[in-house]
């Protein structure tokens, strides 16, 4: 009987799924570990920099590979794209508020005699820059990913 | 679990006088995978479907097409 040499797709898929779950567990564990080291224990940066870099490297790897493969897709209908943009803005706003709150609290903790108005101004400016950066980056990421997906399709035809 | 048992696959395999293990070997998967497809617990890729049909001498319609209920 002719052997076609097909690998067992079920086993491969299952392993990929398990690896993905394993990655998620490691990711969540490292995030929690980082949060505890930074915010609870207030450790020096040199003590948690490795964890931070590993996390960033893993995130960048997933995102860049996703963009290159064109996995981040915009919705096909115009109305849905508008809703997506709205959600993108809300997400950016929320993360900016969290970022701003963290920066402000650090400002207060770092200086004993805090110049409140200066601290507020710098936090607001930083939050605006963060908001613009994060929303623009997400949007660019989506556009680039869509472009890559179309490119793959064009090269197939 | 086993929502749509693939009886037609089992019948075609038996008609060809093949065991699950022989069919699995012919298409390059494990016996368990064939068992799971027959039991309706695994959804094979089109590539595997074609390989199974080639070995059994059937078409995709014969084995995998499902009429709407």
From TrEMBL, chain A:
Q: What superkingdom heads the lineage? A: Bacteria
State the Pfam families in the record.
DUF6773 (PF20563)
Q: Which UniProt keywords apply?
A: Membrane, Transmembrane, Transmembrane helix
TM stretches of this protein: 21-41, 47-67, 88-108, 120-141
Q: What InterPro entries does its record include?
A: DUF6773 (IPR046664)
Q: What is this protein called?
A: DUF3278 domain-containing protein
Q: Which organism is it from?
A: Paenibacillus phytohabitans
